[in-house]
Amino acid sequence: MTQKIQEPLFGVAVIAGVGLIGGSLALGLRQRGLASRVIGYDASPQALEEALALGVIDEVRATPGEWLRSADLVVLAAPVKALLPLARELAPWLSPQATVTDVGSVKMSIAAEMERLGVRQFVPGHPMAGSERGGVQNASAALLENAVWVLAPTETTPLTALSRVRTLVERLGAAPVVMPPEAHDQLVATISHLPYLASLALTHMVARDERLSLLAAGGFRDLTRVASGDPRMSRDMVVENREALREATRRFIRQLEHLADTLDHPDDLLAAATEGKRTRDSLPVVKRSLLPPKFDLVVATPDRPNQLGIITNALGQAGVNIKDIEVLSVREQGGALRLGLETLDDVTRAGELLRELGYETRGRG
Ligand SMILES: NC(=O)c1ccc[n+]([C@@H]2O[C@H](COP(=O)([O-])OP(=O)(O)OC[C@H]3O[C@@H](n4cnc5c(N)ncnc54)[C@H](O)[C@@H]3O)[C@@H](O)[C@H]2O)c1
Ligand SMILES: O=C(O)C(=O)C[C@]1(C(=O)O)C=C[C@@H](O)C=C1
User: Fold this and answer.
1) ipTM value of the model?
2) End of a domain among 179, 202, 225?
3) Chain-centre distance of CA 82, in angstroms?
4) Is 237 touching ligand 1 by the criterion CB < 6 Å?
5) I want to staple 18 with a disulfide (CB 3.0 to 4.6 A). Which of 2, 51, 169, 365 is the partner?
6) Distance between CA atoms of residues 108 and 184, nearest Å
7) Closest ligand 1 atom to Cα of 130
């Protein structure tokens, strides 16, 4: 656990919506000693119970009230569609001194609503990190470490509030980037919301032909991971940013049409492919302790008892840390497991070890 070396930045912190992101933020606050007390507020009693049991928060509250007046920091971390009603529910109880921020994926609508509600110390925010697996059970402070975290002040956001939230983000180990809400929504339409729509388009093509899902390998899985997110939440997120997303979708369709045309002009396609590789290869690699594992090892498993036990035991004894495990297929003549490992070196070592035990393996970095 990270050592507490500085005075708490905040007194009482309230996390409204204790799911994947709210829970991860709460854990960061607690582990880094950034708040004197962390209170969880959520529409779901089960989420609150779970958050308390997991040590994510110190206390729970299920209804707004006087208790909110003592909050020094309030973070709205509910799904995009619930953010505005949540803001309306909490606003009457907030102290004018409380610093308020949110983590929602769309910024213009919540910024306008907070202005309308007269919550002056509000700083719209959005950590560019996450997962398709929601809920507090998947929360981890490490999820937000090293993440780029957009802060999207409006013209009326007080500099003192911006500075406090910027310090919070830095102390959580993330990297604040400041831009206006309009710019955020346009950029995120292309970098996050469009990939979600594209993942739906691709998965729909596969859904109509079983032979396609049989052949789907790493490339298809990598491109469509976000389609596994909560459908309602994801739908609401992209609908909230529909204007910018429509424009991004039009540009994407033009790109696809252009690429289809270059099939008759291989030199043009090579130029496009070279540019694509350069762009993809130069994306900064964000080093987090809890990331979807980068290195996969696929192990073919015969139809015999205790295969999972033998494989995980052998790797555990060799000190190979399995970050993720997935059963890819179960067949009468055997199946396959995907092991998510931390490093390429782990893939090599685990592959050698398992092949010595008679397994067939295939590594992917
Ligand atoms: N999941 C991601 O990858 C990701 C990344 C960055 C930002 N975000 C944003 O973070 C926010 C939360 O997403 P998440 O993935 O943590 O979702 P989640 O489903 O894991 O958690 C949301 C929590 O909010 C609670 N909630 C729902 N309605 C509420 C209401 N009206 N009042 C109080 N609590 C309510 C739910 O019970 C749940 O505990 C969203 O606005 C999302 O756009 C998500
Ligand atoms: O699943 C992930 O890895 C994500 O980071 C999720 C992701 C994204 O599209 O990049 C999804 C929505 C958020 O608002 C921010 C991040």
Assistant:
1) 0.99
2) 179
3) 18
4) yes
5) 51
6) 8
7) 3
Domain boundary among 254, 281, 308: 281
| 197 and 266 co-located in one domain | yes
Ligand 1 mutation pick, 15, 42, 49, 196, max ligand atoms within 8 A of CB: 42
Q: Ligand 2 atom closest to Cα of 196?
A: 9
* 125 touches ligand 1 (CB under 6 Å): no
Ligand 2 centroid distance, CA of 226 (Å):
8
State the Cα torsion 352-353-355-358 to the nearest 10°: 170
Give the span between the Cα atoms of 41 and 18, in whole angstroms: 7
> Per-residue pLDDT tens for 207-223?
989 899 899 999 999 99
CA of 19 to the centre of ligand 1 (A): 5
The 10s digit of each residue's pLDDT in 111-158 is 999 999 999 999 999 999 999 999 999 999 999 999 999 999 999 999
